[in-house]
Design goal:
The chain is mainly alpha-helical. The chain has six helices and no strands.
């Protein structure tokens, strides 16, 4: 009437409880607890900090003014949107990184070189996006409702470009001072 399952017979031959020995290291947890982040209130008051805040505000205006229009009808605005959103997100990331002083906890990264490369690339690519946007606004678009948004966005793109140029200058000075030593 009831047949015994061969798998069940094999499982019954095994011991019912297994003992697993583990050891815990407190060295890792202690070092993690010591890596709390702090807030650098003075960074916002420095020229690079103010430039970064300006990049975020004016960069937001650039991509919001373009995104609120039918920008997909002008292919060049795709490039403008990509550069504006990409560098806006990275700039917000770097602002948070600097405000929380998280960069001091990641000592393997040469932050002055990273900042220099970031700001120089942002300056060059934002400049190309600003020029592309300014040259893509044609006089025949003047009667369209998108014209004013595109013109304002073009203006703010040049403002952001100059902000990144300023931050590139300060990043270069910081990189140069670190490279030469005390």
């Amino acid at each position: 009437m009831y047949e015994e399952n061969p798998m069940q017979a094999k499982m019954e031959d095994r011991p019912r409880s297994l003992t697993i020995n583990t050891t815990a290291s407190t060295a890792h947890s202690d070092s993690f607890a010591a890596t709390s982040l702090s807030y650098d209130k003075q960074f916002i008051r420095t020229v690079p900090g103010l430039l970064m805040v300006a990049e975020i505000i004016f960069g937001l205006l650039v991509w919001m003014l373009v995104a609120g229009t039918e920008y997909f009808r002008v292919p060049a605005f795709g490039w403008v949107m990509f550069i504006a959103v990409f560098y806006w997100i990275l700039t917000v990331f770097f602002l948070i990184l600097y405000l929380t002083m998280a960069y001091t906890k990641i000592t393997q990264v040469p932050w002055t070189t990273v900042g220099l490369c970031f700001n120089c690339s942002a300056f060059v690519l934002y400049f190309t996006a600003a020029v592309v946007e300014a040259t893509s606004i044609k006089h025949e678009f003047a009667r369209r409702h998108d014209f004013n948004s595109w013109a304002a966005s073009s203006f703010f793109a040049f403002v952001v470009t100059f902000c990144y140029a300023g931050n590139a200058f300060f990043s270069f000075r910081s990189w140069r001072a670190r490279d030469q030593g005390p």
